[in-house]
Amino acid sequence: MEAILCAVDFSPATALAVGIAKDLAAASGARLAAFHAVHFASDPLYATDLFERRDRSRRLAEAAHRRLAQCLAPGDLDWEPIVARGDPVEQLSRLTRTRRFDLVVTVSRGIGPLERFFVGTVVERMVQRIACPILILRAPPAGVPAGARPLSRILVGCDLHPPAAPLETACRLGRYWGATDMHLLHVSESPLDQELRVSREQGPAAQNGQVLRQKLEQRLSRACPEARAAGIRFHLDIRPGVPAEVLRDCARECRIDLLVVGVHRTGAIKRALIGSTARDLLHHAPCSLLTVPQPDDTPGDRP
Questions:
Q1: Which of 137, 229, 250 lies closest to 183, judged by CA?
Q2: 3-138 and 154-301 have identical folds
Q3: pTM assigned to the model
Q4: At 177, which helix (H) or strand (E)?
Q5: Domain coordinates of the chain in residue numbers?
Q6: pLDDT digits (tens, 9 = 90+) for 210-249
């Protein structure tokens, strides 16, 4: 990785995002930028005087620079403070379009029923608008220190559709965190004979299941050679069901620290939409989540 962007809101969980981002930057040699957006809504009926709003925005921006310096100190790591004015997602989207970042790190506080509004308006919008991997750290429960720790137990949702961007990104981060094992889960939502494009006469479901495993293992044998060289062992599992539900259950069962999924966008109209699996996991994942954008899913992409 060459550049990491840490988006902070100065909530109590900010230390978690900053700690993870600093550790990744130190391990990978990447440049680190810390981002905060100064934004306050104005009432159109009782609009504040323009001069007063500008003055308040300036003072908030100056305070944000000071707080960013406090968050990232001490340490010898070089970092860049970025304070923008305006809607956080709009400003992040603009920044990631004009500058290349390999990873965005942030914290989600919107995992409870009362906080779900935050996810829908900020974190989910980030996943919709930002075209690079986003590491969404789960904030610890109230009263628990938000210390950074390696996310070394990783679960990757994988399928038969190339390219394997989620797996490659997970392997890259896993090497930095010293992961020794990586769980790979393929959830078969449709009947196996449909998924493999074979007829029922070509073999029973069990045989088709073996074919599916062979296809996935062939993909794994070609994927992530650096991770294999680093000693990471892959554990492949195939389960039937609804992808989001099965991924959540497997994450709990295996005590996963980080769940990795691809985000599909198709067509101009749907460019701002994300799949139902990613949206469900944004709200209900039992652990931190890494979303990795996938290219448009066209027939030519399928094996």
A1: 250
A2: yes
A3: 0.82
A4: helix 165-177
A5: 3-138, 154-301
A6: 776 777 777 666 667 767 777 888 888 888 888 999 999 9
